Every structure is written in C-alpha cells, then in structure tokens.
Amino acid sequence: MIHELLLALSGYPGTIFTWNKRTGLQVSQDLPFLHPSETSVLNRLSKLGSDYMRFTEFIEQHTGHVHQQEHHMNQQNQTVLHGIYLRAFCTGLDSMLQPYRQALLDLEREFLGDPHLTISHVNYKLDQIHGCQILETVYKHSCGGLPPVRMALEKILAVCHGVMYKQLAAWMLHGLLLDQNEEFFVKQGPSAGGAAANQEEEDEDLGLGGLSGKQLRELQDLRLIEEENMLAPSLQQFSLRTEMLPSYIPIRVAEKILFVGESVQMFENHTHGPSRAGSILKHQEDTFATELHKLKQQPLFSLVDFENLIDRIRSTVAEHLWTLMVEESDLLEQLKIIKDFYLLGRGELYQVFIDLAQHMLKTPPTAVTEHDVNVAFQQAAHKVLLDDDNLLPLLHLTIDYQGKDCKEATGPRDGATPPQDTSPREVPPTGWAALGLTYKVQWPLHILFTPAVLEKYNVVFRYLLSVRRVQSQLQHCWALQMQRKHLKSTQMDAVKWRLRNHMAFLIDNLQYYLQVDVLESQFSQLLQQINSTRDFESIRLAHDHFLSNLLAQSFILLKPVFHCLNEILELCQSFCSMVSQSMAPLDERGTAQLDLLVKGFRRQSSLLFKILSSVRNHQINSDLAQLLLRLDYNKYYTQAGGTLGR
C-alpha cells in the first residue's frame, strides 16, 4: 500500500486513493484493514497530493499543449487564459514543485531499502509547518517589499503572536506548559540532541616513542570530546524544541524563557515551610502579565522590548533562587560537605575507613558488603570524632554488585544518586571497584546537585579514593620494610624496596597534585565566584565550570593519561599485595612476579613521562605540565631517562 500512497501523492490515484474534483484525493471508505487512526494520517497526507494535483493540472492546462492551442486558436472560441508570461509563471511554479517530487523519489528508495518503514515515516518526511513554525513562515514572507502584502502579513503575524504571548504568560508566570498539540518551542522531556551518543573506547598502543604534533592535537581533541560527553546537560524535565523556535527569537532568549518556567514550576510544586512560602516572582505576576499584554498589543514585534522584559523576569527569578540557595539553604556549607566527602576533604576519615574496610572490599562484593562498609564508615566517623547526627544519615556508601537490582525492589533513596545502568553487569573484581557514595540533597539544592552531577562527583570520588588507598598501601609496605630492617637483605630485596620507593614517589606527587593544585585551587575559585554574585544562573555556571575543571585537570577526560595512571595504580596494588602476603625471601615464582612488576612500572612511567613532556613542549595542556613539574622538580625523572623503577 505504500507504493499506492506514493503514486497517489505523485498525482496518480487508484482504487485505494480516489480522486474527486470537489473533495480532492481521499482514502477509499471501504477498506476494512485500515484503522481509523491510519485513515486519518493517510487523509492528511492526501491533502498534499490534492494540492499537488491541482498545481500540476493548472500547469498542464496552460503549458501542456501549447502548439495545439496555437494551431486551433482561430478555430475555437478559447476562454482559457494564455500567453508567454503565464507560461513562464507556470514554469516557475513547476520548478518549485521539484523538491516535492524529489522527496517522493527519496521515500521510494528508502522503502525499497527498508520494507519495515511505516506510514508515519512518510508523514514525518512530508510534514507541513506546524505551531510556532507558522510564525517563522509568515515573518519571512512579511519582509517583502510590497506594502499591501507586508501590511497584511504583519497583521496576521500580530494575531499569531497573541497565541505565543498567552503560552509565554502561562509558562513563565505560572509554570504551566499549555501545549496539547506540541506547537510551542518549550517541551516536556530532554532535548533530542542533548544526550551525546556513547562512543566506543579504542585501546590504543601509544608506544614509547615521542608523540607527534598530530598525536598531541588528537589528545587535546579527545579531551574536549570526552569533556563534552561527561558534562553534557543532564536529562531535564523540560527542554527547547529548537525546530519550533522562530529565527527572530535568539536561542539565548529561549534559554532564559526555559529557565524561568522550570524555576517557577519547581517552586510551585515544592513549596515547603513558611520561609519558602510566596512567589518566586516576588508577587510581580500581575505586573509582568500586564507588560506581556502590552507587547501583545504592539502591531510589530520588537526584539529589544521582548528581550528586556524576559531579562527582568529572569533576573527576578534568579535573585530569588540565589536567596534560597545561598542564604536559606546555606549553599556554601553544602559545597563544603561535597568537598569533604566526595572529594576526600576529610582525609583522616577516609584513611581510617580504608584500614577498616580493606579486608571486606578486597574480594568481589556480595549482598551483605554494602551493609558492612556502611558500618565501617560509621565506625571511621566515630573514630575521627565526626558524630554529626544530622549529616551522617544523609550519606550512604553503595556497592553495585551483580544481581542487586533483582534483590532490591525499592528504588534509590530520595535525592540520592541512582546507580548507573550497566546491565548486563559483570562481577567487579573487588568491592572497591563497585564502591560509590550517595548524598540525600535537600530542596531546593536538588536543582544544582542533580543525580547526573552527583554521578560525576562519584567518578572523581572513586578515582581519588583509589589514589589514597594505593598511597596507604605503599606506606604499609614501608612499615613492613622497617620491621625487616634488622634482617639480612638480598639483592631482590633491594630491587623490591627501590621499586616501592619509586612507586611512592610517583603516587605521593600525584596525590599532592590532585588535592592541592586541583581541588583546593578550584574550590577556592568557586567560593570567590559564588560570593561575588547574587544571580543563581551565575552560581550554576560557576559550579559547572568547577566540576568540568575537576574532571579535566584530574585527567579523567584525557583517556590516554587516565589509562596510564590507572595501570600504574594497579601495578602498585599488585606490588603491595605481593609484599604483604609473604615476608620471606622471594622464591623463583616471586622473583618472576617482581620482575614483571618492575618491567610494567618502567614501561608505564616512561609512557607517562613522554606524554607529559611532549604536551608540555607544545604548550597545549597546562594541567599535564603542572603534574610534570611535581614529578620532575629536581630533574631526577629526566636524568633517569624518563623511567622510574630502575
């Protein structure tokens, strides 16, 4: 039936699609296999075919048999209009129909290539203008030079703008999206292009040679791509329908409209307590409604007046949100909590926790692991005198083990970070690999600390915790070394402890870089930016930049460096495991294992040095240069040929 539809749309009706001079092209009424909804869609498409057939009939009438008309000119009493100008008009009209004919040809090719396509695909490809798209079409045609046409279209546009202003008033002043037919440029749900497509990670062997300029540019581009994917806007309840946005309304203005409506709706739906009662617009709804009505009465749309009013409404909402966030909800204290627990600001807490949880997290997790680690976390908090009865219940360590979803029927805790969907899940090698942290965010801070934002903090949390844990294990190895100091040392012992010292040197400097050069520096800048504004959007932007810089400067987004550092951490863990398992001199198997660890550490440390040095020389990443400065401050790394562990 698809081919019958395409033929009918091309001007060739049949038994399924019939042609009537008065009603045009229609679906035959006696087809029992068609659902009423399908008939409705087909009849809507048939209107396009009807218009096309009338156009082609007009064109053929005046250009189809020119020579015959001229031959019989004197023999028949012609009443039909004719002439070269009319034929030229018809030629131009026919050329305007060519894109429509081409679209039908493209559809036929698509259906031949994929027979499973449906009528909805035809409807989508040939869809007519709809909703706010009508504003764009009328506006473009009103820009012509003929005064009568321009004035008529401007009047039509003013009437259409009246509908838009009513939708704007409902959305911006009351948080109501009155759009049953999906005509407005704000919609419920995420943007179609908002979620970045997941890209497969390619395991690249970068080798040990110097990196070329092209490879360095690829590294930088890779970082930017990863940053865009990691920091893409989290799934929102509302988003812009950009195809409906008229071109004379800039995207920046539409984003302000979206922000105001979302904020008003959030406030109306989550008003709690007397201090939060009232209006986020400071009881200026009537004033703003009056000003929107004045804009509606203007015969011509003025972008300057329109944007000025949108800016005033946005400023009112943003300032009120700033008051709620900073003054009533104590945003600075909440950020300190995020820093203390997600970013390991309370280092003494996590040092004790690592010691308590090491034995239960070194094996694959089970159903009771999550309970056990939370008990250990509470014990660690008690040991470091962190007994805040209001704070600790909001924090919860999670273990994402295989089969957890089917065993836990309940959803995530309110305001907590939901676990990532990694089905089908693989069993993590250790509990550390499945460890996460959730924080129950209080209203209205949930609009800043969204689940997606907290998940990004969790990525940083796991990375920082792994570095801290390896550092702790290497310190434990040093303590074991001191216990054996009185014993006679072998040559392999010297190799072992020289490797331990080089590992500790690298990890200690990495830890210092992350905590001082990245976390403390970026957090200080964030607090300065928050204290220098009274605008919520500025706070959100500053926080987004803070999180972006954390992910970038810790190299989570720069996969080659991040992969190299993770390999080094795993080598350090394997070394510590080997040392802690036996204090006796190494046997043949232990010697072979140590030799593999030495070679692996040399290879990865050399790769890291070459990446850092190459990037520093090309001056495209100051973060890598800063880490290299920490590692090679006295040129020891350089003098060792860029290789540690020798």
From TrEMBL:
Domain Gamma tubulin complex component C-terminal: 331-637
Organism: Takifugu flavidus
Principal subcellular localisation of the protein: cytoplasm
PANTHER family: GAMMA TUBULIN COMPLEX PROTEIN, GAMMA-TUBULIN COMPLEX COMPONENT 4
Family note: Belongs to the TUBGCP family.
Protein's cellular compartments: Cytoplasm, Cytoskeleton, Microtubule organizing center, Centrosome
GO molecular function, a single term: microtubule minus-end binding
Keywords: Cytoplasm, Cytoskeleton, Microtubule
Gene Ontology cellular-component terms listed: centrosome; gamma-tubulin complex; microtubule; spindle pole
Region: Disordered, residue numbers: 189-210, 408-427
GO biological process, one term: microtubule nucleation
Record protein name field: Gamma-tubulin complex component
Quaternary data: Component of the gamma-tubulin ring complex (gTuRC) consisting of TUBGCP2, TUBGCP3, TUBGCP4, TUBGCP5 and TUBGCP6 and gamma-tubulin TUBG1 or TUBG2. TUBGCP2, TUBGCP3, TUBGCP4, TUBGCP5 and TUBGCP6 assemble in a 5:5:2:1:1 stoichiometry; each is associated with a gamma-tubulin, thereby arranging 14 gamma-tubulins in a helical manner. Gamma-tubulin at the first position is blocked by TUBGCP3 at the last position, allowing 13 protafilaments to grow into a microtubule.
Pfam families tied to this protein: GCP_C_terminal (PF04130), GCP_N_terminal (PF17681)
Function, in words: Component of the gamma-tubulin ring complex (gTuRC) which mediates microtubule nucleation. The gTuRC regulates the minus-end nucleation of alpha-beta tubulin heterodimers that grow into microtubule protafilaments, a critical step in centrosome duplication and spindle formation.
Gamma tubulin complex component protein N-terminal domain mapped to chain residues: 2-328
Keyword Cytoplasm carried by entry: yes
